[in-house]
Amino acid sequence: MDPKHRSYCPLSVALEVFGDRWSLLIVRDLMFKGRTTFKEFQEAEEGIATNVLADRLQRLEAHGIVARRRDPSDARKVIYRLTEKGLDLAPILVEMIVWGAREGRTNAPPAVIRRMREDRDQFLAEIRSRWATTQLPDEAREE
Amino acid sequence: MDPKHRSYCPLSVALEVFGDRWSLLIVRDLMFKGRTTFKEFQEAEEGIATNVLADRLQRLEAHGIVARRRDPSDARKVIYRLTEKGLDLAPILVEMIVWGAREGRTNAPPAVIRRMREDRDQFLAEIRSRWATTQLPDEAREE
User: Fold this and answer.
1) How close is the nearest chain B Cα to the Cα of A42, in Å?
2) How far from the centroid of its chain's Cα atoms is residue A18's Cα?
3) pLDDT tens for each residue of B23-54
4) What is the pTM of this model?
């Protein structure tokens, strides 16, 4: 047994990476909300604590889900982006959003939820193509 | 704001229910492995601690994802089953398994992963129909 995993079950492996209440919210902010900085993640409505945010960003980076770079327009600023492996989390997020939207009152626009359910492949293709346009040429090569 | 949720985001709501390293492993055991008793969940290879298992089962039951009943063949035994709401987690599990199977070495049979990716709707339909056959007549009505 690989000592770094509790089992070889792929579900267990996935939960070891992002099985907590916060990691996927950061992925959501990057994927759907255009948030890219520590400060923007911190301002998300769920009120993530600074130390939890720092820890989760570090873990997501260690697992190759997010990558950091200097903001080209302001070298003092660090901005985060989803890697291709992070983008591959989109189908999971979509299914979780569809499930969560059934749980009583949410702020999810019903038309978006309907598209996620009924036009899933096209919805995922759009996420991917939107993501591709945010990649810098040299980063596209790196993936 | 509903004080019981940190936000109305459906993803956040979902993570409040099962955003941890263990809950979805119990759902996996019920959905794919035919495990139905506390003892069987405890024997899963990940080595869940007794108190964590008891806590997660209670939470899953409180959220209407699992239900308990007496074993019809042995009234001293409690057995768990997935409710329809629990069954609705299948698409999330499938996507997480597909993602996790890309993460290096896992024990997932490649043929099953391929079916999950390429024949997803049919695969999900089979999970649902297998689940339906395990429901007792009076429980089918209750859903």
Assistant:
1) 14
2) 10
3) 999 999 999 999 999 999 999 999 999 999 99
4) 0.92
